[in-house]
Amino acid sequence: MTILDKIIIDKRKEVDLRKSLIPIQQLEASILFESETLSLTQKLKTSQSGIIAEHKRRSPSKSVINQSLNVQDVAKGYEDAGVCGMSVLTDGKYFGGSLDDLIVARASCDLPLLRKEFIIDEYQIIEAKAYGADVILLIAAILTRDEIKQFSELAKSLYLDVLLEVHNEEELHKSIMPSLDMLGVNNRNLKTFEVSLETSKQLSEQIPNDFVKVSESGISAVEAIKELRPYGYKGFLIGENFMKTDNPGASAIEFINTLGT
Ligand SMILES: O=C(O)c1ccccc1NCC(=O)[C@H](O)[C@H](O)COP(=O)(O)O
């Protein structure tokens, strides 16, 4: 069994429990559920840096990254650095995140916020909206084409942007549909943890131009972004490289300054 299989088994139990504790009607009554969303897709189209900076305490591949920071400081720091958006991991068991992290990030900055989660149920999309997200992630490796369609259409009806993540050709070809906004190529194989920027390069040509292309994971130097831009990538999701430092915001400023225009 891969780590991804384990995550999904646990996630099903977690979502069932959440559903029994907080009914959908209660989520829909949240103030944030009615709030206007911010479009990460539009921001990436016009941004110079394209950086989406992540809040990530730990991960299955790296264990502890940084447990001593508070989300408020990280969110403000990223916003001051001029990143395009912030990704907030909300999985507790494997990444040390929570929906509270998302709410704190929402209260601390005006960046488009991505709920970084293993979405397997419509309920989690309603939750994302109720806790202040602007964007959801759908992972092709854990969803059927019908689920991707159903989930992305629900997200669009709630004015959430949709980032669809793929890691290989098969996932890409089964997923392409008009209800997606951004196509993310994860450079990390979620089953083996192997990371290679070549994955983004190899898949880029097959991604239709209608979608904003995002390269995810394993980006630790500005050279990687300079290498990936000619392949059409506009967005770059960076977690560990910023979060492993004492001050992720300062690290993001330095990164963006070094990148230049
Ligand atoms: O990061 C992991 O170890 C991981 C393992 C299993 C499933 C997902 C995982 N990561 C989620 C992500 O996609 C990354 O947090 C994100 O792309 C940032 O990656 P990085 O810049 O390498 O921290």
Automatic annotation (TrEMBL):
It is an enzyme of class 4 (lyase). Pathway: Amino-acid biosynthesis; L-tryptophan biosynthesis; L-tryptophan from chorismate: step 4/5. Residues 4-250 form the Indole-3-glycerol phosphate synthase domain. It comes from the Bacteria. Keywords: Amino-acid biosynthesis, Aromatic amino acid biosynthesis, Decarboxylase, Lyase, Tryptophan biosynthesis. Signal peptide: none annotated. Pfam families: IGPS. It catalyses: 1-(2-carboxyphenylamino)-1-deoxy-D-ribulose 5-phosphate + H(+) = (1S,2R)-1-C-(indol-3-yl)glycerol 3-phosphate + CO2 + H2O. GO terms for molecular function: indole-3-glycerol-phosphate synthase activity; phosphoribosylanthranilate isomerase activity. Its EC number is 4.1.1.48. CDD domains: IGPS. GO terms for biological process: L-tryptophan biosynthetic process. Belongs to the TrpC family. This is Indole-3-glycerol phosphate synthase. It comes from Winogradskyella luteola.
